[in-house]
Amino acid sequence: MALTLELAVQGVQMTLVLLLAPLLTGFVRKVKARLLRRQGPSLIQPYRDLLRLMRKEVVLADNASWLFRVTPYLIFAATWVAAALIPTFATGLTFSWTADLIAIVALLGSGRFFLALAGMDVGTSFGGIGSSREVMIASLAEPAMLLIVFSLALVAGATQLSTVAAFMGSPQVGLRVSLGMSLIALVMVAVAENARIPVDNPATHLELTMVHEAMVLEYSGRHLAMIEFAAFLKLLLYVSLISCVFLPWGLASVGAGPKSFVLGVVAYLGKLAVCGILLAVFETAIAKMRVFRVPDFLGAALMLALLGTLLLFVSRSL
Amino acid sequence: MISGAAVLLWGVAALLGTAVLAIAGSRGSAAGTRLIYSSTLGISAAVLLVLASRIADDPVIPSTAALPLGLPWIGAHFRLDALSTFFLVVVNFGGAMASLYGLGYGRHESAPHRVLPFFPAFLAGMNLVVLADDAFTFLLSWEFMSLASWALVMAHHREQDNARAGYIYLVMASFGTLALLLAFGLLAGPSGNYTFEAMRAAASPTPLVTAFVLALLLLGAGSKAGLVPLHVWLPLAHPAAPSHVSALMSGVMTKVAIYCFIRVIFDLVGAPAWWSGVAVLFLGGLTAVLGILYALMEKDLKRLLAYSTIENVGVIFVSLGLALAFKANAMPSAAALALTAALFHVLNHSFFKSLLFFGAGAVLTATGERDMEKLGGLIHRMPLTSFAFLVGCVAISALPPFNGFVSEWLAFQAILQSPDLPQWGLKVMVPAVGGLLALSAALAAACFVKAFGITFLGRPRSAAVELAHEVDRYSLAAMFTLAALCLLAGILPGLVIDGLSSVTLPLIGSRMPVQTAEPWLSIVPIAASRSSYNGLLVFLFIAFSASAAAYVIHRFASHELRRGPAWGCGFPDVIPSSQYTAVSFAQPIRRVFGTFVFRARETVEMAAPGETGPARLHVEMHDVIWETLYQPIARAIDFATDHLNHLQFLTIRRYLTLVFLFLIVLLLVLALWP
What we know:
The complex is a heterodimer. By secondary structure, chain A is mainly α. Helices cover 70% and strands 1% of the residues of chain A.
């Protein structure tokens, strides 16, 4: 009985991230439009986009290989699994020990690996430019992310997200300089990983400035739907990660009753809304930077994370 | 009942017999080639069976054997313990796979009489190094292994650059052996106890001697393994050999060098000092990042793989350095975790690097090209090879659910144990090295996106690719076996970790917790609340969600599919050379890291206004290590030989004067010697 309940909670979590992901993106777009005094598309526009893409036929380049056709499903699966393993409204879910934070980061890396390959499959110059820039950004963002994981793990004594969240929710944390550094670095990495302004522009129409969009230029129809969906999920994943680690209030623990689960879901929705508004404000306030300024941006994230980790290493013995 | 070591010596004898057979036999007929490779395959498989039976009886009891060969007052000693059993598995499994691959690949060999005799000899040499139990036998086997592999590097000695590769390899190998000779000399002490047994039993050497032994080991074993800055021969020599030998050299011989390091530093020297960990960590981190940056700049597929070997050796040395630091500070469980990570990566790297070299060899057979700028689109021509190569690329990029990720994950877990270390040097060093490790993992993923993307994806860049065909069944069998093992070791890592416990137990005095008893076969290095990873479930989850997504899409979404010309934002580029190349793919990373590491400069030459000539982009890059370390040495040697050359053309009177003067100097020295 207990197992069925736990599996059900896990299932709710997997469905919840799937259902909420397009909504979050729609919400960010709406807020951005309102900040620019535009009406903006409706909140459910991303769902409509996905449905429309699924109904359209796929136009496939003549020399596209099987890899090109399999990749959308792989990316979607890897991102979905990663998103489902991050505590959203409850910690200590049945399968939460499947992968710790390092493995979740690496899972996203798997998705990106295949996306970059798909960008090169057809052999157009735009695909190549997107892939080569994407791996450049990743080669700086991933070490920064891992160093952030290190400092979280040093504070909480674990890389297991449920344990980290439980620890961060406890009163013994207090204000720590290194945690602040980690938070800033994590936000910077999240912005880069999700191809948001100022690193990349999700709404650009100028090919030469694109990174993510250039890679998926050849995709259409249901394949594009899968890739878009994966991008929505990735944004949700990072927002969940930030809120699970740095805003761990309201998280239900596994044995708690349905009341705390409902509370957890409400708290989670609140956190998503706050983070979405902050992201929209940030994106509206800042201009996109040149591609070769991105290494400086991510280098700053890397240095912040490294400093945070070093501080922790050093302060442990004091 | 003869002992395990004796059985293995019979295996070595059989390999040497095969080598003799190959010299005596016909000069490389197809049947001869088949005979040699099938016999090496059979011998390696038989040795693996013997080893498997030994692994089964836990704990492994060391078995010894002695032969009345070598120096008369020592004889030749051999010993099979847990550590050598593990490395023999790596050697012989690599040997078996290379033989299987050679059955098909060897048919295309242009100079079989230069390969066939040395291939079994090379395998025998590696087996002997791991089995040796005294310094004399060890060094003799080490030199035998080096020379056999040198002969294989020189198999195609008329090809451009191969002779230079062989020369540099020979110089570096002799230098490495010299360093090892001195290290063993220090360990043997004035009484000359050359057996490992005596070295182990001897009292712990003074810190000064330990420091010298460590430095000499880093020079000797490090040069063979490819530690920066002693790596220069490796990217020249490994690709020059035939591909199955490249696989052996990269996947297996570098591991024999790592065996040498572990055997001496962890087993023979005794208790390490904490700063030995610092030195090893520093070199390992440097090697990992520089190796993969060199690989990223490379456009020759086999050389790219060789540079990536350097990176992986760096990763292994980082874990070894952590193990040393923990061992020195009496943290046995953390040391066991770090050493397990190192050994696991040894096994993993032997799997995927062999696989990737086999793939590169298949591409070479099918197209005659190693230069990635002339390849592309091979996924259509060689679907099976490209699939196996893709698995290797994902595995080496440390991505879940494959095996490369597990060993890197264990290394990261070991790094997270390090705040408890008391020394400040290590406290500052370890997180920085952790960052380097993460950087090298991310760059490795970039490098293998490039390797696979440029070689197998896109459109063909030369006519040779259009005519390419899938390779033979033997090559495919070898590649797919390795690909399956990459996945298996990734989703069932607990089995490997438990197998390694008998290796870490005698070296560290501790082992990782039993993993196979964990629910759902997850791996839990310390405690489930701290960190755990379950490759099997990750794999199943991905398979489940990908199939679910595909099912939903195919059930409810549109099925229509139309083929058309590539969209490319409406710019049709019909010329395949307008695609991204290996060099242009690496350009963003070159701009970020290369200006510092390679002193890379880009200059654009624009045609004058009004002219229609093309603009040209020149990239200037420097191999800083070669230019600042090796060229001055080469210049100094040139200078000295130039000037000493005069000595050859003296008159007899001057020679006699020189001899007389030298005699006087010697007598003076003798007289003044305290």
